[in-house]
Amino acid sequence: MAEFFEAIGRRKESTARVRLTAGSGTFVVNEKPLEEYFPRLGDASTILSVLEATSQNPTQYDISVKVDGGGVTGQRDAVKLGLARALVTMDESLRSALRAEGLLTRDPRIKERKKPGLKRARKAPTYTKR
User: How many domains does the chain have?
Assistant: First the structure.
């Protein structure tokens, strides 16, 4: 079996397990091609920006991702972080380039809890004088 490098990326409620192997350039997310799983304009290029930041050729790796939870943006950013971490486990010298681009930092923002007496976390009911 081929050697692979694995890492986990998280964002909001999403978790992505990314496996990186030497190969022909296939990028599979949940058994679907990358562009099919993330059809929104710019999502695939955002994920592949990790490879561009390190001057890696995307066709020299086979990347398979198992992602679950959250929404489209959370899953996209989880895959991006997981890919960056997998590259670092493969080659430690890439860490400084990825760190400079901010690709190794987990986005800590999560959904704020709803407060009592409010409609959402901060939205108050409409004030009525009478």
Answer: 1
